[in-house]
Q: What sequence folds into this?
């Protein structure tokens, strides 16, 4: 049923925000005034691979840009506000990271955000087509499972879709898994390597704990559930003040840095990301992928799954396919 990939997952040691080569990359953050957007922009301002950082939002970006521009790193920062400045914010970007949209409140699941966020992602994808069609587009906005297909369909309509350049950011699921395993095993979370596959909501999140290095020393099932529900853990703790922002900014900066390292010619840059693929019957699916000068260089496919993980995959696929269809239908009707 599924393409099995025998390749050993050779995750590189995490070098989150550093590189050996010099570069000249322009990055645009859409939603840069938000709970995620601000710390994400801060982390990107510290990234030596970024030379120009453009901050776009419907409010607040002149202030955030002025603030960040006083940091003594070499990149320059510029703020862009409102739809009339979106094109200028995107012009010539190498990487665009999108966290524009509404976050969850207690009692909501990610799918409840669809009505607010679908149109936002559609319009940004449309502007990407027109202003930076070769950019790597990486989406944080939820529901990731559905808005990534929306972006794909919009880019396709405009004749600029390249599946190697569109990424749904599921990195937070990997980051959380590493944190929980590391602290659970009493080892440095940075030393933990684990693939998390599928999508980015509830049962579609599949941490492949059988492939974790080191192996998790405690019970697998409660940890699997905790990783799947970790976003809700934060939503509840924030009690109405939004969802994960700081950990998400860290995860988004990690993925953006990996995209830039790939563009910069570094080899063996591997991240899990939600991309178009034929690995399963779901058109979009997160697997470990090799990043390079053109974005996605190689999809490493499914890691080896044990019986429990195969069962999780069977549970995830119908939900994921439903989420994807919703996005495709939205663009067809738009
Ligand atoms: P937030 O409300 O703090 O920030 C969102 C920002 O988007 C705001 O500054 C707002 O002004 C801006 N915005 C709204 N409409 C816009 C538009 N049309 N164009 C540009 N900017 C616009 O929310 P947040 O906590 O930063 O979360 C942002 C999104 O990220 C939410 O959809 C949330 O669910 C999602 N999220 C994803 C993950 C993940 O793992 N992928 C994790 C956490 C949150």
A:
């Amino acid at each position: 049923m599924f393409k099995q990939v025998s390749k050993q997952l050779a995750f590189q040691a995490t070098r989150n925000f550093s590189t050996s080569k010099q570069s000249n990359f322009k990055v645009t953050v859409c939603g840069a005034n938000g709970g995620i957007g601000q710390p994400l922009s801060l982390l990107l301002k510290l990234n030596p691979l970024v030379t120009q950082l453009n901050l776009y939002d419907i409010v607040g970006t002149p202030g955030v840009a002025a603030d960040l521009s006083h940091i003594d790193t070499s990149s320059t920062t510029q703020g862009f506000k409102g739809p009339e400045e979106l094109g200028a914010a995107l012009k010539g970007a190498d990487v665009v990271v999108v966290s524009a949209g509404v976050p969850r409140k207690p009692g909501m699941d990610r799918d409840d955000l669809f009505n607010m966020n679908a149109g936002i992602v559609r319009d940004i994808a449309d502007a990407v087509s027109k202003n930076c069609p070769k950019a790597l587009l990486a989406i944080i906005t939820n529901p990731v499972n559905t808005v990534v297909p929306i972006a794909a369909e919009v880019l396709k309509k405009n004749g600029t879709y390249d599946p190697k350049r569109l990424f749904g950011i599921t990195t937070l699921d990997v980051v959380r898994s590493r944190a929980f395993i590391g602290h659970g095993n009493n080892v440095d979370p940075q030393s933990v390597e684990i693939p998390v596959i599928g999508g980015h909501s509830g049962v579609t999140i599949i941490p492949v704990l059988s492939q974790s290095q080191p192996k998790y020393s405690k019970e697998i099932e409660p940890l699997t559930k905790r990783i799947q529900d970790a976003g809700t853990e934060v939503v509840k703790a924030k009690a109405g003040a939004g969802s994960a922002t700081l950990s998400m900014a860290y995860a988004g900066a990690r993925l953006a840095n990996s995209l830039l390292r790939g563009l910069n010619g570094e080899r063996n840059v591997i991240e899990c990301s939600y991309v178009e693929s034929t690995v399963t019957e779901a058109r979009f699916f997160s697997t470990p992928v090799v990043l390079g000068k053109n974005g996605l260089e190689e999809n490493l496919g499914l890691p080896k799954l044990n019986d429990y993980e195969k069962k999780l995959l069977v549970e995830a696929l119908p939900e994921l396919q439903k989420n994807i269809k919703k996005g495709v239908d939205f663009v067809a009707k738009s």
